[in-house]
């Protein structure tokens, strides 16, 4: 019985792997095509200040739209692009496009642009040079470019990572820890990190109303971060109740579907125009 079960298990497992392998090869080939056709896009999601709900910046989020109109999630193709090395040209394109759009966005206010970094990009020897090159090319200001990194990127080679962060901050870039709370960094480690802000992962925000534990974690992170003089951003705010909760807990910035979804640049500028008219207190 055990043997039969084991064998069934094994067969199931191999079928699963080869299927996944097949689909990842297909995805990778498709991605190559997309790169050649320049078919990637950036969407932008506005970020709001908690106290007056004005837009203070946007986060650039990569989109790959297939020919049939459907979107492939970055959570799905970024790991593949990292494995294949395609992440390098993709990341340079993201940075250039985000800085280019960031310059134009200044017509709508003093807005920062947040960009997500990949571990591979961050750990490359020429990373800082290429960042400076992009700023020179586009004329965007380093102080308005916010770099988002996950805890795992910083844990990989933490001494080197800290040196890179320090160098970035000397160049005036500002740095955020993304998805905060889902990694393993200790509070003492956080204290040593030269970063400017924390983005509380949306899994904690999802249950702040009604979920006692998540409410405690979210308000704990917010008060700890404030004592460390870090700016705190709540990600994934989907309701007014959640917005009110994180605001009352002292969170500085908020982002989420309740306020605005990620959208193409052309829609973003319309949103900004409309929003500034209706939200003038
Ligand atoms: P992230 O940086 O944590 O981005 C936030 C994700 O949450 C985005 O998913 C956004 O669409 C989604 N989101 C925002 N507000 C809400 C909300 O209220 N509810 C819910 N359920 N979701 C919300 P997206 O765009 O699918 O991106 C997924 C992840 O892919 C990002 O997580 C980031 O880690 C990565 N990513 C996106 N763009 C890039 C990029 O240009 N480069 C790199 N290296 N990674 C990227
Ligand atoms: Mg992010
Ligand atoms: Mg996040
Ligand atoms: Mg994430």
Automatic annotation (TrEMBL):
Domain EAL: 24-276
Protein name: Bifunctional diguanylate cyclase/phosphodiesterase
UniProt organism field: Aliidiomarina sanyensis
Superkingdom of origin: Bacteria
